[in-house]
């Protein structure tokens, strides 16, 4: 796996953390940590877009964030689980994997600037 895709995954994991932080922050320290996580996730995401198409990177980033946030809420915070949620998470992950598979590997973006 190349470095740019690794950065997208890291940014997605950080997104899960700040999304959970948005829901559960209730004091200055937790809000500050959440804001820092938002900042770092986008710094890492921007770095990934230097070598990968922005639309693909953003779709994968939000897919990881959405699926990860739902799973964390179910596993750690007792959110209700349903087969329908699982189906749509799997469908989302299938789309993310598909985007990664059809994105051509390159050292420079097409139509470089």
From TrEMBL:
Transmembrane is among the record's keywords: yes
Matches recorded under Pfam families: Multi_Drug_Res
Main subcellular location of this protein, as a coarse class: membrane
Keywords tagged on the record: Cell membrane, Membrane, Transmembrane, Transmembrane helix, Transport
Membrane topology, from the record: Multi-pass membrane protein
InterPro entries linked to this entry: EmrE-like, Small_drug/metabolite_transptr, Small_multidrug_res
Membrane-spanning intervals of the chain: 5-22, 28-46, 58-78, 84-102
One term of GO molecular function: transmembrane transporter activity
GO cellular component: plasma membrane
Cellular location(s): Cell membrane
SUPFAM superfamilies per UniProt: Multidrug resistance efflux transporter EmrE
Assigned protein family: Belongs to the drug/metabolite transporter (DMT) superfamily. Small multidrug resistance (SMR) (TC 2.A.7.1) family.
PANTHER family named among the record's database cross-references: GUANIDINIUM EFFLUX SYSTEM SUBUNIT GDNC-RELATED (PTHR30561:SF7), SMR FAMILY PROTON-DEPENDENT DRUG EFFLUX TRANSPORTER SUGE (PTHR30561)
Name of the molecule in the record: QacE family quaternary ammonium compound efflux SMR transporter
Organism for this UniProt entry: Rossellomorea vietnamensis
């Amino acid at each position: 796996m190349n470095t740019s895709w690794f950065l997208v995954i890291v940014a997605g994991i950080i997104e899960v953390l700040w999304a959970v932080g948005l829901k559960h922050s209730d004091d200055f320290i937790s809000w500050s940590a959440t804001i820092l996580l938002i900042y770092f996730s986008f710094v890492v995401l921007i770095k990934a877009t230097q070598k990968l198409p922005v639309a693909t990177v953003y779709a994968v980033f939000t897919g990881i964030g959405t699926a990860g946030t739902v799973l964390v809420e179910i596993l750690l915070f007792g959110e209700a689980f349903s087969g329908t949620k699982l189906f749509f998470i799997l469908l989302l992950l299938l789309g993310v994997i598909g985007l990664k598979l059809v994105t051509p590997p390159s050292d420079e973006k097409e139509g470089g600037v």
